[in-house]
Amino acid sequence: MNTRKTEPILLDNQTDLVINSSVFTAVLDIIREEEKISKDSFLVLKLSNDGSIRDLNKKFLGRDTLTDVISFQAEMPGIPLLGDIIIDINVADGQKVNRTIEKELQVLFLHGLLHLLGYDHLGVKQSKEMKKKEKEYFSKLKEKHTTRGR
């Protein structure tokens, strides 16, 4: 019997950016608690900078544009895989006004993670709900970071 524990985030960093996975795990921990997600659940996070996210955006969403983050829900009954999140770090770096690249990546990771959980922003009501969740969870992340730093 295989008792090996799966990491909560399988990080596929295809860039030169050195980043600790704890940047993302801190977000996932809050979401797991607040959204009542199983501790066994995990996801794949790919960081890229080669523009391949544009190809995925076109192929799966019909949008021939570069984007910052895209996510795909897993459809594998019996496996606690939430799905895949792909973030383009060049786009993230270009839009990180007044924050570090780590914070911008957390913003994009949270956004992608909420999509994996079924949240969306296609309609006005859905968009408001998703923005509310993003704001709420970043507030909790900030509180956690502030409390830990004492």
Keywords:
Collagenase (Catalytic Domain); 5 helices; alpha/beta; 47% helix; 150 residues
Would you kindly provide a written description of the structure presented here, covering whatever features stand out?
The chain has one domain (9-148): Metalloproteases ("zincins"), catalytic domain (Collagenase (Catalytic Domain)). Helix content is 47%, strand content 17%. The protein contains five helices and four strands, in the order βαβαββααα. It is globular and about 35 Å long. The relative contact order is 0.16. The model has no long low-confidence stretch (mean pLDDT 90).
Secondary structure blueprint with pairings:
Elements: E1 9-13, H1 22-35, E2 42-48, H2 52-61, E3 69-73, E4 81-88, H3 89-94, H4 101-116, H5 124-148
Parallel strand pairs: 1-2, 2-4
Antiparallel strand pairs: 3-4
Helix pairs in contact: 1-4, 1-5, 4-5
